[in-house]
Design a protein that fits this description.
single chain, 68 residues, alpha+beta, 31% strand, elongated
Length: 68
Amino acid sequence: MLVLSRKINERIVIGDGIEVTVLKVTGGRVKLGISADSFISIRRGEVEADTRDDAARLGRGLLEFEIA
């Protein structure tokens, strides 16, 4: 893992199509702006983990859906 320090308005460039800019730092939180080509999917880590967990449960038939 590469670990970098950045100040507000500084950016990190990943490959040819992704830029991450530090927008705001407040207490223990950092607000990031991410620019990427439209074909690149960007998700928060906890959403990605939930999606993987749901897919695993679906594969085992463990998801329940409420039908209205």
